[in-house]
C-alpha cells in the first residue's frame, strides 16, 4: 500500500505519468516494491531528456537521487543512514539542486514517477550495487528482513548461495502472507544468484510458477525460456510443459493448453503419479472450457486418467474431482454423480488445503454446475475468493469472479453482478489475460435490453473462433436464447438454443440452454424437438436431484403437459425454485404458469401469477421479461404498473464495485488494494455514492436492497 500511494502521489495528475504509470502500477503494487525501476518502459526522447538534466547535477545530488530511486518506500531516515554509509559527503543540501525533481520531507518523493526510472537506468551496474549495499546495511534486519534481503540480493556481484537461500526462505514467508508477487520477485533473484545448474533450474521453475500465480504471465514465460536454455531433467521438462499449459489456459491465448497439459501428464506418469493425476485434472479443465475439439480431447484425457493406477488412500479432494469428471465423460452423469457430489462437498467445506483450493477449486465449481447445485457453487466460489485474496494468487481470480458474477445475476442481484464483472475487467487488465465476458453475456441476456446485448453477443461470437475461446460461443448462444425468449422471439431463441446445446456431453453452459430450447420449441409448435430435448434435460437433472435442476425440469415438462398434470408441474416448479436463490427462474415459472392459466381461460388466477411475475421481473431489472408479463396481463384485462428504474442504477460500475466491497466490511484501504486505487480515490467515490443514494455513512449501505 505504501508503494502504491507513493507512486500515485508522485504522479500528481501529470498527463504523461497517467499514460505511462498504469503499465507498471499493478505489478509494482502487488510486488510490494520488489521490482527494479528498470522495469519501466520509457520512450527514448523522454529518457534522454531526463538524463541530460541529471548530467548537469552535482555528483552528491546524483548519488542522493540514485539512493532514493533504489528504495521505493521513501523513508528519509533510511535514506540519510545509507548516505552516511556511502561516505561520499552526501548531506541534506544535496537535494537542493534537484528540487524540481525530488521532494525530501516527511517522505522522499520524486516529482514525476518517470524520474525514478530514468535515474536508476542512468547509473552503472557498479553504482547500483553500491547504493543497494548501503541500503541493505542501513535497513534493520529485524523489522525489515525482506527489504534488507532484497537490497543484499541487488548488491550481489555474482552467484551467492547464502543470499539465494535467504531469498528462497523469504519467498515462502511472502507466499504465506499473501505476497505472491513479492515471492515471485524473491525466487527470480534467488535463481539468478544460484551457482549450480540443477538448483538454478529448480528455482527458475519455482519463480515461473509464482509469477503465473501472481498473474505475471509474460514474465513466467520468459523464465520458462530461461530454464529451457539449460539442461533440464525429465521431471523438470515435464514441469515446463505443465506450466506452459497452465499459462496458455489462464491467459486465454492459444489452443494448445489442453494438449500441452496432456503431454505433461503423460510425461509425469512414470515420474510422479500424484502430479500426473493433478495434471490430467488441469487438462480436463482446459479441454472443457478452451478447446474447439472438446469431445475428442476430453475423451482422450478421461480414458488416460481412468487407466492410471489408484491414487493415494484415502483419496485426496482432487482425486475425487478427477475421478468424478472422468466418469462423467466416459460413463455418464448417473455413474459420476455420487463421486462429484462428494468432491463438491469437500471443496465447499474447509478441509481442502490452500494449494489444492487455489489450483482446482474453480473446477469444483464446474462439478457443482454439472449437478445443478447452486448452493455448492456459491459456497465454493465464496471460499475461493477469500483464499485468492489472502494468498495473492491472481491467475485463478477472474474465474471465480466470473462465476460469482453469473451467480449474482442468476440470483437477481444485477448490481452485484455488474460489480463482479467490473472487478474481472480490473484483474484481467492488470494481468493481461484474455477471457471471454461470460458473466457480462448472461447479465445482458437477463436485462433484456436488445440494443446493449446483441452487440456484445456478436462481438463474442466474432472472437469465438480465436484460439482458446472454445466455450465462448456456447455462452453467447445461450445468452441469445434467454434474450429472445424474453422478447417473445421464439424462432430466434430456438435457433440460438440449438447452437448452444449442440455439444453432445451436455456440459454446462450447454445444458443450461436446454430449458430455453424447450420453451422456444413449445411456443412455436415444435413438439418433437421439445420432447427430445426434455429427455436430454432429465438425464442431467435426475441424477443431480436438486431443487434447482428438478424445478427447471418440472417447469419445462409443464410446458408440454395438459390439464391437472400441467398445473401440478407448474406448482412443483414454483415450490422447488422458491427454495433456491434463483429469483429470475422463479419469476419465469410464475410467468409460464400465468400464461398457461390465461390460455385455460382462468383469468383471475392468471392475473395473480402474472402480477407476481411482473413485480419480480421489475424489481430485478429484467426488462424484456417484464414487458412480456405486462402484455400477458393486458390480455387478461389488467394493466401492469409502469416499470421504474431502481435508484442503484444511478451508480457507475466503479461505484457499484466499491459499494459491494464496503458492504462486505472491507475498509477503504482494503478496497483500494483490491481495485488498484488510492485510498483517496475510494473516499471520493464513496462521497459521490452517499450523495446519490441520500445516505450519510457506510453503515447505511447495509440496509440498501
TrEMBL record:
Tell me the superkingdom of the source: Bacteria
Q: Which SUPFAM superfamilies match?
A: C-terminal effector domain of the bipartite response regulators, TPR-like
Domain HTH luxR-type: from-to ranges: 644-705
In terms of CDD domains, this protein maps to: LuxR_C_like
Disordered, as annotated region: 126-147
Query: Pfam families this protein is in?
Result: GerE (PF00196)
Q: Which UniProt keywords apply?
A: DNA-binding, Transcription, Transcription regulation
Q: PANTHER family from the entry?
A: DNA-BINDING TRANSCRIPTIONAL ACTIVATOR DEVR_DOSR
Identification of the protein by name: LuxR C-terminal-related transcriptional regulator
Recall the taxonomic lineage recorded for the source organism: Bacteria, Bacillati, Actinomycetota, Actinomycetes, Propionibacteriales
Amino acid at each position: 500500500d505504501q508503494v502504491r500511494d507513493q507512486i500515485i502521489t508522485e504522479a500528481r495528475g501529470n498527463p504523461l505519468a497517467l499514460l505511462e504509470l498504469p503499465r507498471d502500477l499493478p505489478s509494482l503494487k502487488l510486488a510490494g516494491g520488489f521490482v527494479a525501476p528498470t522495469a519501466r518502459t520509457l520512450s527514448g526522447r523522454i529518457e534522454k531528456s531526463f538524463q541530460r538534466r541529471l548530467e548537469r547535477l552535482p555528483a552528491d545530488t546524483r548519488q542522493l537521487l540514485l539512493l532514493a530511486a533504489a528504495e521505493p518506500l521513501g523513508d528519509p531516515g533510511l535514506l540519510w543512514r545509507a548516505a552516511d554509509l556511502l561516505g561520499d559527503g552526501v548531506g541534506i543540501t544535496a537535494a537542493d539542486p534537484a528540487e524540481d525533481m525530488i521532494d525530501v520531507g516527511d517522505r522522499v518523493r520524486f516529482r514525476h514517477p518517470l524520474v525514478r526510472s530514468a535515474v536508476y537506468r542512468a547509473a552503472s551496474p557498479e553504482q547500483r550495487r553500491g547504493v543497494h549495499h548501503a541500503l541493505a546495511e542501513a535497513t534493520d534486519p529485524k523489522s525489515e528482513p525482506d527489504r534488507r534481503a532484497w537490497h543484499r540480493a541487488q548488491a550481489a556481484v555474482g552467484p551467492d548461495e547464502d543470499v539465494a537461500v535467504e531469498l528462497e526462505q523469504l519467498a515462502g514467508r511472502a507466499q504465506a502472507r499473501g505476497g505472491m508477487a513479492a515471492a515471485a520477485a524473491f525466487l527470480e533473484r534467488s535463481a539468478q544468484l544460484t551457482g549450480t545448474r540443477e538448483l538454478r533450474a529448480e528455482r527458475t521453475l519455482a519463480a515461473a510458477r509464482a509469477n503465473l500465480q501472481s498473474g505475471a504471465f509474460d514474465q513466467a514465460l520468459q523464465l520458462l525460456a530461461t530454464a529451457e536454455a539449460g539442461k533440464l531433467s525429465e521431471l523438470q521438462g515435464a514441469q515446463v510443459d505443465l506450466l506452459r499449459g497452465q499459462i496458455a489456459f489462464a491467459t486465454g491465448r492459444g489452443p494448445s493448453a489442453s494438449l500441452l497439459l496432456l503431454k505433461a501428464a503423460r510425461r509425469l506418469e512414470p515420474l510422479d503419479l500424484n502430479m500426473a493425476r493433478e495434471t490430467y485434472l488441469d487438462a480436463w479443465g482446459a479441454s472443457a472450457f478452451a478447446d474447439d475439439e472438446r469431445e475428442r480431447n476430453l475423451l482422450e484425457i478421461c480414458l488416460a486418467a481412468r487407466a492410471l493406477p489408484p491414487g493415494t488412500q484415502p483419496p485426496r479432494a482432487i482425486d475425487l474431482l478427477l475421478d468424478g469428471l472422468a466418469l462423467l465423460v466416459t460413463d455418464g452423469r448417473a455413474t459420476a454423480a455420487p463421486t462429484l457430489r462428494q468432491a463438491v462437498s469437500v471443496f465447499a467445506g474447509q478441509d481442502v488445503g490452500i494449494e489444492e483450493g487455489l489450483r482446482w477449486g474453480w473446477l469444483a465449481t464446474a462439478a457443482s454446475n454439472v449437478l445443478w447445485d447452486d448452493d455448492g457453487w456459491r459456497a465454493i466460489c465464496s471460499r475461493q475468493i477469500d483464499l485468492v485474496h489472502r494468498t495473492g494468487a491472481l491467475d485463478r481470480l477472474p474465474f471465480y469472479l466470473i462465476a460469482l458474477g453469473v451467480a449474482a445475476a442468476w440470483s437477481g442481484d444485477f448490481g452485484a453482478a455488474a460489480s463482479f464483472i467490473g472487478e474481472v475487467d480490473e484483474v484481467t487488465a492488470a494481468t493481461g489475460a484474455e477471457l471471454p465476458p461470460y458473466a457480462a453475456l448472461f447479465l445482458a441476456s437477463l436485462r433484456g435490453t436488445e440494443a446493449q446485448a446483441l452487440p456484445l453477443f456478436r462481438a463474442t461470437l466474432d472472437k469465438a473462433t480465436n484460439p482458446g475461446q472454445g466455450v465462448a460461443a456456447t455462452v453467447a448462444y445461450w445468452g441469445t436464447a434467454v434474450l429472445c425468449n424474453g422478447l417473445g422471439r421464439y424462432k430466434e431463441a430456438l435457433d440460438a438454443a440449438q447452437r448452444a446445446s449442440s455439444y453432445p456431453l451436455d456440459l454446462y453452459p450447454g445444458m443450461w440452454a436446454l430449458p430455453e430450447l424447450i420453451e422456444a420449441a413449445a411456443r412455436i409448435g415444435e413438439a418433437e424437438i421439445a420432447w427430445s430435448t426434455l429427455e436430454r434435460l432429465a438425464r442431467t437433472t435426475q441424477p443431480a436431484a436438486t431443487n434447482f435442476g428438478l424445478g427447471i425440469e418440472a417447469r419445462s415438462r409443464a410446458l408440454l403437459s395438459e390439464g391437472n398434470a400441467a398445473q401440478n408441474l407448474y406448482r412443483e416448479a414454483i415450490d422447488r425454485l422458491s427454495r433456491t436463490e434463483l429469483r429470475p427462474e422463479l419469476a419465469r415459472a410464475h410467468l409460464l404458469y400465468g400464461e398457461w392459466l390465461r390460455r385455460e381461460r382462468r383469468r383471475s388466477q392468471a392475473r395473480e401469477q402474472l402480477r407476481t411475475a411482473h413485480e419480480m421481473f421489475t424489481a430485478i431489472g429484467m426488462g424484456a421479461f417484464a414487458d412480456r408479463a405486462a402484455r400477458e396481463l393486458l390480455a387478461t384485462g389488467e394493466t401492469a404498473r409502469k416499470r421504474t428504474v431502481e435508484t442503484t442504477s444511478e451508480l457507475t460500475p466503479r461505484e457499484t464495485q466499491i459499494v459491494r466491497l464496503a458492504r462486505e466490511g472491507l475498509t477503504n484501504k482494503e478496497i483500494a488494494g483490491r481495485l488498484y486505487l488510492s485510498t483517496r480515490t475510494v473516499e471520493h467515490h464513496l462521497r459521490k455514492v452517499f450523495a446519490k443514494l441520500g445516505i450519510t455513512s457506510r453503515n447505511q449501505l447495509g440496509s440498501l436492497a
